[in-house]
Amino acid sequence: MAVYTKIDDDALRAFLAQYDVGELLSYKGIAEGVQNTNYLVRTSKNQFILTLYEKLVDEKDLPFFLGLMEHLATHDISCPLPVHDKKGNVLKVLGGRPAVMVTFLDGFSISKPKRHHCADLGAALAGIHLAGQDFKISRANTLGLEGWQEILDRPELRIMDKEIKPGLFAIIETELAFLRENWPQDLPSGVVHADLFPDNVFFLGDHLSGLIDFYFACNDFFAYDLAICLNAWCFENDLSFNMTNARALLSAYEKTRPLNKDELAALPLLARGAAMRFLMTRVNDWISTPEDALVSRHDPIEYLRKLRFHQQIKSVNEYGFEK
Amino acid sequence: MAVYTKIDDDALRAFLAQYDVGELLSYKGIAEGVQNTNYLVRTSKNQFILTLYEKLVDEKDLPFFLGLMEHLATHDISCPLPVHDKKGNVLKVLGGRPAVMVTFLDGFSISKPKRHHCADLGAALAGIHLAGQDFKISRANTLGLEGWQEILDRPELRIMDKEIKPGLFAIIETELAFLRENWPQDLPSGVVHADLFPDNVFFLGDHLSGLIDFYFACNDFFAYDLAICLNAWCFENDLSFNMTNARALLSAYEKTRPLNKDELAALPLLARGAAMRFLMTRVNDWISTPEDALVSRHDPIEYLRKLRFHQQIKSVNEYGFEK
Q1: What are the C-alpha distances in Å from B32 to residues A27, A30, B25, B178?
Q2: Contact check, Cβ <8 Å, A2/B29
Q3: Predicted ipTM beyond 0.90
Q4: pLDDT tens per residue across span B303-322
Q5: In a 3-state reduction of DSSP, which class is residue A138?
C-alpha cells in the first residue's frame, strides 16, 4: 500500500514510447495492492495501471498470472487486460523491476456487501472457473496444506500465544492435523483466484464491473475458491454469519457452474481450510510487521472466529443453501 | 506519501451526493503530498483530487489556502480549483478530517528541468505574484527567520553534529545570525507559493500545465519566492549550478513582473535564506523520521551545499542575469 519504486518522467516516457498508447498526460502512484508498486497512468488514448513487481512476487510466476489475465479478459471476464508493446511483449522492465501495463477498470470495492453483490460475485467466480478450463499454464497452490504447515513451523511464530492469543498455537496445530486427515482428494479443480476478497472486486451502479489482483491465482479445487469467498463476503463486521449473502453467493455460482455432491459435502471442510489459510498468513504478518508500520495489519483473530464457526457446521444446508 | 485516512464507498458516495459532480466511477488513494491523504476520484462528470487534511496542516490556515487557490484559478493561473458543494461550501468534513475536492490537473512533474521549463516557471511564478495582489486574506510565513531559529532551538536537534555532519550546528548558528543582521526590511511583497519545487509544477507537451500544493503559501517578499525556485530548479543532481536555467528563470520572471534594484541586490542573500529554510526543515525531519519509515527523508546536506554556493555570490550577475 505504498509506492516502493519511484519512476521519473523521462523513464516513464521512454517506457511508454515502446507501446502504441499515445502521449503521457499524467501519472500518480496509487495505494493499490500491498505487494507491488502501482501507477495510474493516463495517456492521450486511455488509462492504464502500470505495475512494478517488488520482491514479494516470484518472477517465475509472472507468465502464469499475466497469461491468465489475458486469457480471462479475452474470454469475457472483466479483468485487467495486459497491454502488449509494439514488439508484442507484455512482461517488461522498468526501474529495475519486472513491469506490466494493464487496462484500467472503472468501479470500486464495496465495504459492506449485500445480497445482490454476492449474487454477482458467485456468477463471476463460476465464470472464472469455466473460462480458465482451457488455460494451458498451471501453478501449484503454495498456500495449501503444506504451506500452512510450513508457516506454523517457523520458529519465530512460537510467540503467537503471547503476542496474539494464549493457546493459539495448539488450536492451529490440532486443526491442521484434522484438515490433513480429512482434506478431499478428488474434487473438480482448475484455475482459482484464491484471493477474491471485496477489495479485489469492483462494482459500478450496483453491478460487478471488474475483478483484479490475480497474484494468488493457482490450480486448486473450484469449491475451495468458493469457500474463500464465503469467508470473505458472508460475515458481518461483528463476525455474525450472513446467511442471505451465503445463499445468494452459492445459488448464483451453482447457476453458472453446478456443484456436484462431493463438492457440496466438502464445503464446510473447505471453508475451515480457507479460514486456516488466512489465519496462518495473518498470524505470520502480525508477528513480522512492526506495530507502527504504515502497512496495516489484518487481525488474525477474525479468521480464528470464522474457523470456529465452520467447525460447527455439519452440512452445506446450514449455510442456507439447498440443492 | 501514503493514504492515512481510509474512506469506504458508502461514505464517499454520501459525500459526493452533496456536490453536483455526477456518479462515482472509481477512486484510488494516491501518493501525492507528504502531509495529507489524497484520493483521485473519477465521476461520470469529471476527475477530482479529494484531500483530507491530516494533523500536520493547521485547520485555521485552510481558508487562506483554499481561498488562494480559488482566487488564482479564477485569475488565469492553472492551479486546482476547489469545488463548491450544492450549498456553496468548499471546506467540508469526511472521515473525521477537514476535506476538500479540487479539480484534477493533467500534466506531470519534470525530474530534470531544462532551460525552457525554467522559463515557463519564471513566468508562472510572476503570474502568481501579480494575481495574488488583490487577494484579501493574508498569512504570516511561519518558516521565516523566527521559524528557523525556533527549529534550531529544539533540544533534540543538538544531535545533528553526530547524526548528520560534524560542525553543522555552529555553521547554522553563524549563518542565522548573519541572516538576521542583514535580512532586507522593505521589498515588494505579497502572496508567495514558498514551495514551488519541481514536484509541484506539472508540464504537458513541454509546456507548464499546472501548479499545485499551496500549503506553504504565505505573505513574504516576492523575490524570496524566486530565490526558493533558484535553489530548487537551477542545480544539477551533482549540485553544480546551472546558470542557463537560472538565467531563463530570472529573465522570464522579469518579463512578467520586473524586479527592482533592491530586489536584485538582495537576491543572493534571499537565496541564502531560502537554502536555510529547507536546510532547517530537512535537518528537523532527518532527526525526527525513523530511518526505516516508508516516508523518504530528504538529504539536508544538499541544502547546506546550496547555502555554501550562495555565500560566495557577490551580485545577481553571477547567477547569469543582467538587467
Answers
A1: 11, 9, 20, 36
A2: no
A3: no
A4: 999 999 999 999 999 999 98
A5: coil
